[in-house]
Each structure stands twice: as C-alpha cells, then as structure tokens.
Amino acid sequence: MSSRTKKDTNWTRRTKQLKGLGLVCLYILSFVTPVRGYFLKGCRISGGDAKCDKKNLDAVPQDIPPTVESIDLHKNKIPGIRTDDFRGEFPRLTNLNLGNNFIHYIDTGAFSGLIALKTLNLNHNRICNLSENVFLHLNGLAELRITYNCIKKVELNAFKPMTNLKILDLSHNKLNISNVAMMLRHLPNLQKLYLSANALNTFQSWEVTDALVDLQVLDISKNPIKVFNITSDVFPTLTTLSVGSTTVRHNMTWNVSNKTFLNCVKSLDISMISMSLSGIESLMETVNSSLTYLSMDAMKQNLGKLINISCSIPTMTKLVIQKNKLHNIHSDLFTLCTSLTELDLSNNLITTISDDAFRSLPNLLILNLSNNNLSLVPAATRNQSNLRTLDLSHCKISALECSNFANNTKLTQLSLYNNKIQTLKNCVFKNLRKLQVLKLQSNQITTLNSAFIASLPNLTTLHLEENKITTIKSKEFKGLGSLSKLSLQNNQIKTLNKESFFGLMNLKQLQLENNALNAKEVQKGVFSPMINLKTLDLSSNFIKFGKKQSLRVPPFSNLSRLEELSIFNQGGRGHTILPINFLQGLSNLLSFNIRNTLLNDLDKDTFTWTPQLQILDIRSNPLNSLFPDFFIQLRNLTKLYLSNSHFYSLDFLIDINLTKLNYLQAKSNQYSVIRPEVIGSLPALHYADLRDNVFTCDCDNKAFMEWAENSKQTQVYEAHNFQCNYPPSFKGKKLLDFDFRLCLLDVGFIAFVTTTSVTLLLMLVSLTYHFMRWQLVYAYYIFLAWLTDKKHKKKRAPYQYDAFVSYNTHDELWVVQELLPKLEGEQGWKLCLHHRNFEPGKPIIDNITDAIYQSRKTLCVISHKYLESEWCLREFQVASFRLFDEKKDVLILVFLEEIQRSKLSPYYRMRKLLKRQTYLSWPKAAEQTELFWEKLRQALQSGDQSDEGVLLHTTLNAP
Length: 959
Hints:
Number of helices: 16
Membrane topology: Single-pass type I membrane protein
Distance between the termini: 48 Å
CATH class of the domain at 773-950: Alpha Beta
Family: Belongs to the Toll-like receptor family.
Main location: membrane
CATH topology of the domain at 773-950: Rossmann fold
Shape: elongated
GO molecular function: signaling receptor activity
Strand content: 5-15%
Keywords: Cell membrane, Glycoprotein, Immunity, Inflammatory response, Innate immunity, Leucine-rich repeat, Membrane, Receptor, Repeat, Signal, Transmembrane, Transmembrane helix
Structural class: alpha/beta
C-alpha cells in the first residue's frame, strides 16, 4: 500500500472518529459567533489603508476593519452604493476611492456613517442623478470628485450637508447652469470648482450666489458657452480661470461690466476659445492688472496678434503656446514680450527658429521647446545668457556642437532626452558650470568621449539611461564631484575598470540595471571610489558566481553607507552561488534584493556583514529550504519575501526571534501545513501573503486557520481563497470550508484511552510471548511460507537447477568439500547455492522462493545450527509447502548430526515428516559414504511422482 493511500485511509478513519466524539462540541459551538480580526476577502491592509482595488468586486466588502484611514475600491465592478455598505463605524476613515466602477445609484444616506471623511472619489462611473440626502452627514468632507459620469439632474438639497467642501470636481458630465447654481448655494467655503466639459451654455453672475467669497479656481472650459456675463463681484478671490472651448463654432460674448471684478486673476486659460480678436482684447482688459500666466493652446486666431495682445499686459511673466502648428519662429513674434520669464512652445511643429527670435526676452529664465521638429540646437538659445532651464527633449537633434551652450552660463537644468544624439564632444558642456540637472537619456550615445571630466562641477543629476554605451573608461566622471544621482540603466555596458567611477565621492544613487555586466567586472573594485553611495541597482545583468568560497576582493567592501542593493534578474546559464563574503563592508545595508537569480543555496554566514538589514527579497529562487542559523544576523528584519522558492515548509522560521518582522510574502510554494510554532515565532507580523500553496485539509491546519480568521493584528491575505490539495476528496475545495470544529476533542480522555489500551496490549504480548513463544515463531514462518506458496504455485517456468541446497553457513565447509565435488563434479548435477547463485540487491526472501521453485528438488542439510537459523527455517517452510501442495517428491532431508526427536518439537512440520518418512544421514563410518552418495543420487534422479510414498528415501541408519 502506498504512503498516500495509507494517509488517505487514516484520514478517513480519523474523520469518522472525530465526527463521533465531537457531536456535543459541535452542538454547543453552533451557537457561537467567532470574533473576526483582519480576515478580509477582497482587501489588503497596508498601514492604515485598505487596498481593495482591481479585485473584480461586485459589492463593497463587509469585512474591512473599522480602524482604517483609507479605502481604495477603484477599478472594480460595483454597481451601486447601498445604505448598509458602510453601516459599520469608520471613525478614522478620511479617504474613500470608488472610482472606475459601474456605480449608477447611491442610496439615501449611504455615506452617513463616514463622519470623518475628507476625500470622496466617484470618478469614471455611471451616475446620472444625485438624489436628496445622498451625501447626508458628510459635513466634514473637503474634496469631492465625480468626473466622467452622466450627471444631468441634481436634487435641491443634494449638496446641502457639505458645508465645509473646498474642492468640487464635476468635469465631464451633463450639468447646466441651473444645476450648478443650485449646488453653489450650499457650498459657502468652496475654493476650487471644476466644471469642464459639461452642458453650460451661459454663465450669468446673477445665477451664482454671492456667497462664493473663497473661490480661487474656476474651470468652465470645454463648455458650449455663448455668453459669459458678470455684473457683480461674485468672485472676489478668484486667481485661476479657465474658459476655453472646443465645441462652439460661433463667438463667445464676453461681458464683465467692471474691470475690478476679476482683478485677482493671475492665471488664465483661453485655449481653443471661440472669440474674435477684438473680443479677446476686451477679455484681456478685464485681467490686465493682475495676470501673470496665460495659456493659449490650439488657437484659431492670428497667433502673432494674440501674442502682441497678451504681451501688452505688463504683469504677465509666463506664456504657454502649445499645439498651435507653428513651423517657424520669426524675429518679431515676441517683440512686445519683454517681461516674460517663462515661455512654453512645446508640442508644435517648429523646424526653424530665427537667430534673434528671443532677443527681445532679456528676462527669460525657462524655455520649453520640446516635442518639435528641431534637428539642431537653435542658435537663438545662445543669446539667452540668463536662461536657467532649457528643454529640447523629444526633438530630432542628432549632434551637439561646442558652441551650442557657450553663452548659457547660468543654466541649471538642460533636457536633451529622446533625441538622436550619437556622440558627445569633450567641449560641449564646458561653460555650464552652474548646471545641476542634465538629461541625455533615450538617445543613441555610444561613448562619453571625456565630456564629463572637468566641465560640470555643480551637476547633481545625470541621466544617461537608454543609450548604447558599452564601456565606461577610466575617470570618465572625474569632473562631477557634486554628482548625487547617476542613471546608466538600459545601456549595453559590459566593461568597467577600477577607475570608471573615479571622482564620484558624493554619489548617492547609481543605476546600472539592464546592462551586460558579469561577475568578473564587479570584482575589480569598481565601486570603491563611491564611498557615500546609498542606492545601487545592478539588476538584470549577468552577475553570477560559481563558488561559495570567499572572494579575494569583495565588490562592496568600501560602501559602508550603502542602504539599498538590488541584483535581481541575473541572466546567463546555470545556478547562482553567492560567495560567503559577497556583502562584506555593507554594515548599514537596509534592503537587499536578489530575487529570480536561480540561487539555490545561501550560506548561514552570508549576512554576517549586514546587521542592520530590514528588507530581504529572495523570492523566485529554487532554494527549497533555509536553515534557522541563516537568520541569526537578521534581528532587524521587517520585510521578508520568500515567494516561489520551492519551500515545503516554513519551519525554519521557528525560534529565530524575528521580533520586528511585520511583512511576510511567501506565496506560490509547497506548504501543506503552517504550524502554530511558525505563527508564534513572528510576534510583530501585520501582513502575510501565503496564496497558491498546497494546503492539507485536516486538523493540522486548525490553529493556522483560527489565527488567520481571528487575529486582530495580522492579515493573512486572501485566506478565504486558500484551496485544499489533500486529501483527494477535498482537492480543489476551499480550506475554509473544512469543518475544523471536528478537531475539538477532550485531549485528556483521548490520552487516558490511549494509555490504557497500550498498557493492556503490552501485558497481553508479554504473557503470550512467555507461554507460547515457539508456537508463535513457528506459526509466523508457516504463514510466510503459505503466502510464498500462493504466489508461486501457478508458475510453470522450466527448472534451472536440479536441486537447491539449503544449509547453514556453519556447515558450508562440508557442502563445499564433500557435497559439491561429489554431486556436481562426479555425478553432474546442477546445484543452486545461496552464496553463488542469489541475485545481488534482490530481497533475500525473493531469492529463496525463486531458488526453490526454479529447482527440481530442495536438499536440506540439517544440523543443530540449521535449526537455530531463521533463514534456514524459512527455506524449509517454503519447500515443505511446495511438497504438500504439489504432491511431488521435491524434498530431501540430510542430517549431518544426530538430533533427538524431542528437540524437533517446536518444528512441527519437520517432526511430522520424520514420523511418516525416512531420511538420509551422513554416516559416521567412512566406509559407508559410497552407499550414502548412491542413495542421494537415486533421490535426486527420481522423477516428480505424485505418490507420497516415495517422497523421502531410506538410509542406512535412522536416529
């Protein structure tokens, strides 16, 4: 019987016993309601946040703990909010996200229990009507967003409870001005109102209450507004106004009766507005005393005249002109814009710029020319000596010249990413001594050509990722003494040397992931100069080691301040073996990530060098198990990732004192049972992810599931979905469906019954052994022989031997010197002897039975030692069963010694044979040996007669 079949049978018997003994307990417990802890069916608790997003939920979960401060339910399939969805008290809940669902109804008072709520998100749903008291008791709500719905009807008092609302976003709905006016009457403290893309066809100040004294931001863009009419000071504090439109073909009428009504507006967006030039000029006159920011995207009017109108406002400093299909920038386009400090010309089609196009902008600090068709750095930018930020990203620049930035000596940020730059010259950045941020990523750069050796002393951030760099030569970054962040990921770097990062003493973050580095390169001491490094990412390279022995030069021995090290996803063939001193020198390391590297072993001394480690990620490695000693140096560990690592148990976590561990991810392994000792060894655990394992549905998991259901400290993520893998009758079912109440038995009673039964059994066995020892031994061998005979009696294979010789090793000398020479040498018989014919490696009982049934006869050489041998008696029993079953002359007894019949009493079958038949005895006198051999020859020569009368042969003497 296989071990699995035995286990299944035992489990079935155990279940029946449990059912019988646990009926009373079940009856009592059926009236008890368990106290729930963090047992959630659709959410994950992280700190004070309940993350229930992207779970395909069709209702608000009812098991969210009341202590959470935030609930995220976006991207589910919830059709509506019912009165009892938040019936529990959430005294700390301040943020509720219900965006991206199918919500089309909200019951009256559905949020009434959320008295502490500050932010409510209902974006991207199907709400068309806001009924009376839908926001009942949300008087503390500060932010409400219901964008991208279909709201066209709002009941009179829908917004009345939200007297403290400060931000309201109803963009992309179907509201008209009457609905808006009704809402605003109840929102005296509103500061930001977004009504973009609705159905507002007019905006009349008399329809809006004068209570909006705190409104600062108003967005009514993308509405079919025909008339904008303000005849009273309804927006005394308004600073930001957006009125552009994309849906109206006729002109908007702008009427602001008093220029002081909008005298606080600093930011104005009139993008895509449908208005004549004179109308826009009139509009500008109403804000010309305070305007500092103007956006004019995708305008249909004459752009040059619009710029002249806008630049006539003396206070304006920032001008945004995007998506206007500009091809050329002429020298007179910005003649009147002398006060501009920021100019955004991105997302146009600019191909050429006049050399003196920006000459009239002496105060320009920020210039954005990104997303255009420029093939070279425009010469016009060289004349801007005060420029601080220049953005030339997403263009088509293929080369940089030494003169490109020669006059931009005050530049602090330069963006050249996403172009077609292939080479760098060592003089291109020589005058940018104040530059702090340089972005060169996503180009086609192959070599650095000493561009950073001496020219950028104040640079703190350098982006070179997503290029084609293969080698970092010596002292390439020598001049970047202030550099704090260097990004080199997604290149083709495969060669480094000891001085590749020379001079980067203040570097804190280095990203080298997704390159072609191997173990040999990182052992050259290449990281030694960066003594202040805190984050190092070497993931997705080819760094693999073949030996566990210590390295001669540990790669990070000088990085004592490093806090985060990532070397996951290493390519190449074969498994990874981490050298024992790989982490030597990292005394302040806090996070180590080595997931998915085909790591199959970790030495217990690996983390001797990292006593401060808090986060360890070793998931997706074929580790199978870890020794408890492995964690001796990890007393400060707070997060541990063990998923998909072929672990069959978590018992290695027992008694290792990880008292600070609060996060454990150990899903997709082979656990069948989680022992209570594992749970007890992690006293600070708050979150455990144990999904996708092979749990056994029996009482061994009772303590684990009770903890998962009732713990008020730890959330076992999606424990309700754990599936059974064993026993077969439960496979595929939920572990939670197993009735663990059957395991509640009286342990004392079971112990008493077990102890009593064992004592009585031991007494019975002792008495039986004392009085019937030989009878039992004989019966045992009789039974074995009977089983053997049943197995072989139907076999009719041809005989391989004339006789099988059964003898004791003490008689082997007689067999070898007397029996074999006579029978095989002189008479020519073929004999089977255990010391030469038994098959090596085969069970001995199988060798015996095969030898007896493959021989015509069995010759038993009887002596005192023979009768004392267990295996000799087994051979005799098998042969005698063959004798009496086949009724043939197949057994020959030869006595070497004189044995009294009284000594044969324990051997019942042999004694019985001797009473009925004669036998052969080795003669004492040497002269009778010839007669002995003749009688033995006749016995071997006799056929397989079925007459019992010739089973044995006479001899000269009988004992």
